[in-house]
Each structure stands twice: as structure tokens, then as C-alpha cells.
Design a protein that fits this description.
584 residues, D-Maltodextrin-Binding Protein, domain 2, Dipeptide-binding Protein, domain 3, 2 domains, five-stranded mixed β-sheet, 16 helices, 18% strand, globular, disordered N terminus
């Protein structure tokens, strides 16, 4: 069994953590924000003092902005986004839709979801009365029409376009009504939630003018960052780029005042410092989607954090995937004619051992995005091509494809070209891939993305060999990764999720049929067909289904971990953040 050096020792100088975190304690104030420090029990722990409740929340990556204009690899911003903004619908911990800005969900019995004989649809939404933006401006139906145009425009780097692309037009017949006209069937038209289609403020004339006249500068508008004004239960009161931002209750939120008075979101990129901060009480909260503790330290936290009564560990094991994407233009293994080479590379990987190293469970090794034990896998698993660990089979396939070992042990072809490429992979699992491939003559050079480039979409799309990544398993993942319309390119400012450049007309057609299938049985059959196509051609290198956990100080209440998979991505713990509280 392999081992690696991650978390071999958990020895920290706690005072150094205090210095790092206290450096974040006095943020700059944003326009309209108080920026005053809330009080808490102890040095930085959650609690109450003089009636004020304060939480320090640590994230592993800086938030550069909000909305899907900042989607992609560094997407921790999505977690606090649910606190600052609001949506027609949110998905709860069971993956069920709950109306928020809408008064109710569209439905066919109510006549607000019409399916036409030609396969088009209409859905009608009624907006909740009296909703205002954080600055007091009323929410208008036109705000959603503006957001739809942003999501649809190929000249801006919007990360998830599938829903917007399916809507042909939006009409706003009065001050409280939205009518979506769909060009095709879409099974989740009754749950338009975060990241599908967000409200953008039509009262912000500068933002609208930038969108209409200067698409290149539009993503840099201050409304998307330090001057964000949303609709959510919390408002942005301070922003210190690269360090932290502060959220305080939106006193006019229709759902009532949130219970926590101040949430300081600090960026702590070092895993060791973040863990030490949890144990020392300097950090009250880390969430699984944005820097929660890795499985390798769960035992430490169980013994020293949960076991001592200091905090709680909330584990989630639903709907995520870690995998690697070969660049489709790479001459070694890219393209539909190189399936045998990619199959060989997959046979060479001991994914069960990798899963044991990474998530302490060999059964979480993945062979596609459809996870074993789920109803979907029980129905469609027979269609998935499986490549068990078999170095001899890998060597045989390489030889059949014209690759044999040279004097230095590295594979080479008849022209003397070596099988060498860059593997842009995490420091955790990257060395394991490298070692497995080396055994069969593959020379993979590990490249770790610098932290400052993690959210640079053009850089992320520029990998020449193989790129490790992760996703929530969702229809957004299926459309984003497997449809050629989502290839990251200059025209969409590198905002497409398909950074590998994968393209196959059969995959495009199957994805489109999945997105139109209203019947679950039909949808599952089509998804099984797609999984068969993708795995037969070894389009991606599947690794494992990661487990995740959030840590929270003992006094924090109201957190509800996900119990299902959302149709469009992660079920985020912050869906009910207005209900979170700190016990006395």
C-alpha cells in the first residue's frame, strides 16, 4: 500500500496561527458597511458577548468575486454566495426545491408549467412581494431577464450556460411575473436555482452599460466584488482583497433577521495553519466545499476537537468526483482515435489503493461519474466499461498502439518520440498517478498550479497534457464537461467547463437528449448510454469519489449536511444560513 507525506505530523506552534489570523482581524469597510468588529468569547471563537454573535469562517482560497463569471476550478465563492444573494429556488439538504424569491414552484396541475406539442415549454413564476436589494431597491422581474442575458452571452465567461441556453426568451408582463419560454423540454424547469439564472440589478446603470458596451471589462465591475449588493439574508459590509470579507444581517430580508451578527470569512490557504486554527479555537467554521478538513486529519479532529467537546465534524459523502481530463488535442493520447492509449493509461492506475490513500475506502474508487450503490448505478452500471488495475494489460495495449520501452525505460514510438507529458495534478494524488504510470513506461511531469492562478480561467484551460480536477455530479457536470459547446475558448473568455476540449457529435446529441428528457426512466437510460460511450473511449481518467467534512465550533447550530445529490451541482450547507445560530 502506498503512503505519502500529507498530514504525517500534526504538530503546530499555535501562537503562529494566532498571528496569521489576527492579521485579518481589522478589515477595510465597504461602501454602506459598518466594518465594526463584533465581539465573541475567547480569542476568536464563536459565541456571544454583549449580545453580539460572531463567527470566524476560514476558506482555503480567496474569493475573487461572485456569480458564475468567477466559476471554474476556484469556486469556493459559491458557498458564501448563498448568504449574500437570493434565488427563485434553493435546494435543501435532501435536494428538494424550496421557493425563495418565488411564491411557489411552477407546476402542470396549476397551469404554470405548460408543455407544448412541439416540445417547447412555458413556465410562469410569481415573485414574492416586497423583496428589496440590500440598498433598498425593489426586486424587479427585469432583474432576472438581465441575468439571463448575461448567462447567455458567449462574450462573457459564464461558467454554466445549459439552462440559459434552453430558454428562448423571458417576458415580464407585470411587476411580479416572469414567463420563461423554453426552446426544448427541460426536466428541472421548476427549480431554477443558484448558478442557473441569477438576478442582476437593473438599477445599477453602470453595470448594465458595461455589459452592453464593454464585455471585456464587465467581469471587473465592482458590483461583482467589493461593492456587491445582493438580495440574501446577509449583506457585504467589508472586503479586503485576498484577506477576508465580512457579512452582517440584511435587516430588511423578507425571511426575518439572521441570527448571527457578524461572519468574518478569512482566506487561510495553508492546510496546516487552517487545521491548527480549528484546534486552537481561532477558526470557528470550515465548510466542505471551501476548505473543510481533509480525510487525512479526521482522526485528529475526532480525538482533539470533537472528543474534547470543542467542536463538531459534519461528514458528507454524496455526489462528488475526483478525476483527470486528457487534453483532446494532445498527440499522445487526445482525440477519438487514441482510445486504446487512454485505456492503457487507465489500466495502469491502481485506483482502489489511491482511494484508500485519499479517502480511506477502497470501495470509493470510481469507474465513471455514476457511483456504485446508487439507484442510477443499479439501473445502468452494466453499460460502464471498467478497467481494473492491470499493468500487464496496459503494457500490451501500449505495444498494440505502437509504444515500446526505450533504453531509459520510457515508452517511445517508431519515430523515437517519448511518451512524456505534463500532469497538472494536486500534490496529494499526483505523485500516485506519476508512480503508477512510471511502472509502465509513462513519463508524467507533475505541475502544481500556483495558488494565484487557480481562478485564472485562461491559464486553467491551457494545460497541454492531463489536468486533475473535481466536480459535483450533476447535469451541469454532464453538459459542461461532455458537450462541445462548452469548450473553453477565446470566444467565451475561457469560461467553458470543457477545458479538455473534448468533442464527439454522439456525446453532444446524447447530452442534449438527456437535458430534454422529462421522464426519469428515459433520462437514466440516456445517461447510461452516455456513460458507456465515455468509458469505452476512456475519455477521462476516473479516480475516486471524495468524502468531505465541515468543521464547526460546538455552539454553532442549524447546519444541515446534504443527504442527496442536487441536479445542478453541490448541495451547499449555506442554503439555510439565515437559520444558523450560536447557543449560549
Amino acid at each position: 500500500m502506498r503512503s505519502h507525506g500529507l498530514w504525517k505530523r500534526v504538530s503546530f506552534v499555535i501562537i503562529s496561527v494566532s498571528v496569521v489570523l489576527s492579521a485579518c482581524a481589522t478589515p477595510s469597510t465597504s461602501p454602506g458597511g459598518s466594518g465594526e468588529a463584533g465581539s465573541s468569547v475567547g480569542q476568536g471563537q464563536s459565541g456571544t458577548q454583549s449580545g453580539s454573535k460572531r463567527v470566524v469562517w476560514a476558506m482555503d482560497q480567496p474569493v475573487e468575486g461572485f456569480t458564475e463569471l468567477f466559476g471554474g476550478p476556484a469556486s469556493g465563492w459559491r458557498v458564501p454566495y448563498l448568504a449574500l444573494h437570493d434565488f427563485l429556488v434553493v435546494l435543501d439538504d435532501a435536494g428538494e426545491p424550496r421557493p425563495r424569491l418565488a411564491t411557489e414552484l411552477p407546476s402542470q396541475p396549476a397551469g404554470t408549467w405548460k408543455v407544448n406539442p412541439d416540445g417547447t415549454m412555458e413556465t410562469t413564476w410569481k415573485l414574492r412581494p416586497g423583496v428589496t436589494w440590500h440598498n433598498g431597491e425593489p426586486l424587479r422581474p427585469a432583474d432576472f431577464e438581465f441575468g439571463w442575458r448575461v448567462a447567455l452571452d458567449p462574450a462573457v465567461p459564464w461558467n454554466k450556460r445549459a439552462v440559459a441556453a434552453a430558454i428562448e426568451r423571458i417576458e415580464t408582463p407585470d411587476d411580479s411575473t416572469l414567463v420563461f419560454y423554453w426552446g426544448n423540454l427541460y426536466p428541472f424547469a421548476d427549480r431554477i436555482q443558484q448558478f442557473d439564472l441569477d438576478a442582476f440589478p437593473t438599477w445599477n446603470t453602470g453595470l448594465m452599460e458595461a455589459f452592453e458596451t464593454n464585455k471585456a471589462e464587465f467581469p471587473h465591475d465592482p458590483w461583482l466584488t467589493r461593492e456587491f449588493v445582493g438580495l440574501g439574508p446577509y449583506r457585504l459590509t467589508a472586503w479586503e482583497p485576498g484577506v477576508q470579507f465580512v457579512m452582517e444581517p440584511n435587516e430588511s430580508w423578507y425571511g426575518g433577521r439572521s441570527k448571527i451578527d457578524r461572519i468574518e470569512v478569512r482566506f487561510v490557504g495553508d492546510d496546516n495553519v487552517r487545521l491548527a486554527g480549528i484546534l486552537s479555537g481561532e477558526i470557528d467554521l470550515t465548510l466542505a466545499n471551501s476548505g473543510g478538513p481533509l480525510p487525512e486529519v479526521w482522526q485528529t479532529l475526532t480525538e482533539q476537537y470533537v472528543g474534547t467537546g470543542q467542536g463538531q465534524l459534519i461528514k458528507e459523502q454524496v455526489g462528488r468526483l475526483t478525476y483527470a481530463t486528457p487534453k483532446w488535442t494532445n498527440p499522445l493520447f487526445g482525440g477519438n482515435n487514441q482510445a486504446k492509449v487512454r485505456q492503457a493509461m487507465t489500466y495502469a492506475l491502481d485506483r482502489e489503493s489511491l482511494a484508500e490513500v485519499m479517502v480511506k475506502d477502497r470501495n470509493l474508487a470510481s469507474h465513471s461519474w455514476i457511483q456504485k450503490g446508487t439507484p442510477l448505478h443499479n439501473s445502468q452500471g452494466s453499460k460502464i466499461a471498467v478497467y481494473p488495475y492491470d499493468p500487464a494489460k496496459a503494457s500490451q495495449l501500449f505495444q498494440e498502439a505502437g509504444w515500446t520501452r526505450g533504453p531509459d525505460g520510457v515508452l517511445q514510438n517508431a519515430a523515437g518520440e517519448k511518451f512524456q507529458f505534463e500532469c497538472w495534478c494536486a500534490e496529494t494524488y499526483g505523485p500516485v498517478l506519476q508512480a503508477d504510470w512510471k511502472q509502465v513506461g509513462v513519463d508524467a511531469e507533475l505541475v502544481v498550479t500556483p495558488p494565484q492562478l487557480r481562478s485564472n480561467l485562461e491559464y486553467q484551460a491551457s494545460f497541454p497534457g492531463i489536468q486533475g480536477t473535481g466536480n459535483a455530479i450533476s447535469f451541469a457536470f454532464i453538459d459542461g464537461r461532455f458537450h462541445s459547446r462548452n469548450i473553453a475558448r477565446t470566444e467565451n473568455r475561457w469560461g467553458g467547463q470543457n477545458r479538455a476540449g473534448y468533442s464527439d457529435p454522439e456525446a453532444d446529441s446524447t447530452v442534449e437528449r438527456i437535458l430534454r428528457a422529462l421522464d426519469q426512466t428515459e433520462r437514466w437510460n440516456l445517461e447510461g448510454d452516455l456513460a458507456g460511450l465515455i468509458t469505452r473511449n476512456a475519455v477521462f481518467v476516473w479516480m475516486y469519489h471524495p468524502t468531505a467534512a465541515s468543521s464547526a465550533a460546538k455552539g454553532i447550530t442549524g447546519l444541515k449536511p446534504s443527504r442527496a445529490t442536487g441536479h445542478s451541482g453541490d448541495l451547499l450547507l449555506t442554503w439555510n444560513i439565515a437559520e444558523w445560530d450560536i447557543s449560549q
